[in-house]
Amino acid sequence: MSKKLTKRSEDYSKWYNELVVKADLAENSGVRGMMVIKPYGYAIWEKVQAELDKRFKETGHENAYFPLLIPKSYFTKEASHVEGFAKECAVVTHYRLKTADDGSIIVDEKAKLEEELIIRPTSETIIWDSYRKWIQSYRDLPIKINQWANVMRWEMRTRLFLRTAEFLWQEGHTAHATKEEALEEAQLMHNLYADFLQDFMAIPVIKGEKTENERFGGALNTFTIEALMQDGKALQAGTSHFLGQNFAKAFDVKFTTNEGKQNYVWATSWGVTTRLIGALVMTHSDDQGLVLPPNLAPIQVVIVPIYRNDEQLDAITKVVNKMIIAFKEKNISVKFDNRTTYKPGFKFAEYELKGVPLRIAIGPKDLENGTVELARRDTLTKEFVEQDNLLTKVSNLLVEIQNNLYKKALNFRNEHITKVNSFEEFKRVLENKGGFIAAHWDGTIATEKEIKKLTKATIRCILLDTENEEGKCVLTGAVSKSRVLFAKAY
Amino acid sequence: MSKKLTKRSEDYSKWYNELVVKADLAENSGVRGMMVIKPYGYAIWEKVQAELDKRFKETGHENAYFPLLIPKSYFTKEASHVEGFAKECAVVTHYRLKTADDGSIIVDEKAKLEEELIIRPTSETIIWDSYRKWIQSYRDLPIKINQWANVMRWEMRTRLFLRTAEFLWQEGHTAHATKEEALEEAQLMHNLYADFLQDFMAIPVIKGEKTENERFGGALNTFTIEALMQDGKALQAGTSHFLGQNFAKAFDVKFTTNEGKQNYVWATSWGVTTRLIGALVMTHSDDQGLVLPPNLAPIQVVIVPIYRNDEQLDAITKVVNKMIIAFKEKNISVKFDNRTTYKPGFKFAEYELKGVPLRIAIGPKDLENGTVELARRDTLTKEFVEQDNLLTKVSNLLVEIQNNLYKKALNFRNEHITKVNSFEEFKRVLENKGGFIAAHWDGTIATEKEIKKLTKATIRCILLDTENEEGKCVLTGAVSKSRVLFAKAY
To answer: pTM surpassing 0.80?
Structure first.
């Protein structure tokens, strides 16, 4: 705890890795690429889950659960899906171990599966295999199901929260009678994600569509929300896919319309992952440690007693216990850290590192004066507050901090969208300033790939509300109907 | 929906299988032994989760998440654990697929793992591998962590909810400085489970200890709660294990005590699974379908309009909308089924099958009279209720139904505990009446196994609060210090 973090300006990547571990969010396990999400990190994920789940249900979705393992043959049914997904994945080939003659435990070769099973990298195939049985008539539609689950993609280079072999997520899978309704659903969830990140996580996002090259395997259209990290790199924070009739055709899911016709069903899928916690850390935190928006802070207010003897601690505790009751009535989560084994300075550093939004220190002088010392994590400022005003002050400050973090992140993001008109400018901005680059592109996959090869920047999205400003592609000079956003990305 | 269920008296097992599918709780997937938990079944599981999670947190536990895959070598570290567990399990051997020359998708033999990974059948080993890094001093103790997760055991004979290859559960894993504290924790959770089943699920349970032969692999003591199904078979509904220092020794987890000594850490683990939903179905339901205790019913009250034309439906809807607001203010979950595509009789049958505790029917006559028809699912009785008294009536009935279901199950269970004093009597009761048999046993594993071989009955538990009634073992006649409970079990 005493060891300082690497500064962001020195090595942003190292700062992030250290912070996630030191703030007790997560750590690497003994299994390659798989993380342990520690209680403090998981408590943040639980807040993400609770709020999203509420919003999903308010928009008419239900939860369900589908199998972890998917037969290999299911993946091959949708050609572009298997290309995009199923290659780097964990394959189950046997179902038994046995004790060998030398006493060691080995795989029982007699227990080999006839068909290999894949640990789900995403569940479209297993879910559409079920939907075939559930859907006969227009009366069975729409189906709007979400699943909270673990998934696995065999990533070679992993980083805590940002890219891990196993991660937690939610995946929505909906089935509709018409194209219009499915598109509307994909857009509804796209907007729901954007609002959630902005209102609840204080992370501003850009809404757009992916290029064909960057689409989800099997999708006709992928809507994305893109956030900007403090190092100028973009982070894809959530996607919502319009899948057309691709999965319905692959799994032969038809329904009888009101008029007695047979049609294929229209589909969407959409998801966000524990990656959001990585985005949260990299959007708001600073060289002192985590900075958590009050909405997501497992502890919103910590109270640290300053005392020299038991008598003083007792007197402080009496006053603090009343405060705690008042805070809890207002649904403010509060922790009284009365551990005698650590000194106040150590505790201050710990809660700073862990991003607790407000810290109250209270000692004998404060008891005399009827005050406390109140410190804000976001601005690192302190002030004395009268105990009588404390509850109001704290309630207001929690709202203010939430808003302040959003505004700060929004300003940073807005300052880091740069229009460029030549490839030289493109490279210079990318190199020196980073962030999103709004540039003209000729619309071809070849150009997109060439720019990526030359600069490592990818097209993050085609803006949805883009003005139709014509121009020339920064690379080829060919005609372009509007700008798209490039960036280096996580 | 129109097809009737098999009667319980005809074929209890068939009745159960049909009911789970027809009531839309779950179904088999295309993957052997793995189920799809459908929205209605998952909604019940969410209620189980929410209430248990609240109780875990109130007793000082935090949630976290550990990896799905466990290296094979971890299992072999605790000898009795690997014997009990790791044999029938899903083994991941490869991490990539590839496209073969003929275009088919095959496992890439180049992507073979150096060490096989096991899909967790339970997480003691991966968790204690982490705890070694987390625990140095007595100040790091206790650790009280719970995980909500999926696990997998390669069962050969599977049944929806009762025994599936993959299932959902929670697993608590705690670490303590002393034996006493760990034992206390194991007992605390044992009691928490018993209270939860009784108060919340209306399922009476018997609390006891497992015999050595029936203990969890690696445990020094396994506390169990045993429920009784309507066919007279017992169902183990939850277990809490005192693990001693076994896992601490296997994973070398020591801590420095207050006095500077090095000690191994003491452990517990405890869990309940989606099997609870099977127990719920088999405890309360009848030949008409599910019967759900109000605490666990996704829909507590359904309102079905009876009408001949749109005008009547409009008039009914106006009255119903006011009822809905009143119910929601009291946190009563209500559904107004105004689907025009189905007739009332069809709807009645559907909600009976799905176990909705209360059904309100309202037609033009009721509007005139200011009444509704109110039907109870548990007793299948109906009465007319004045609309002005409806809210109070419904609130009271929901409590009454919850209590009634518990009492009914408790009576059945109490009637099915039979004391026997000879092996002939043992076999006769087991054959003709079923239920729990309280019999003397000589305390040896050999006798326990022999009785199982001869009768299929196992020792469900040694009672905790047993009177020290001495006697003679029903099989061997050897001396016995007290009776234990035998039963055939799920």
So the answer is: yes
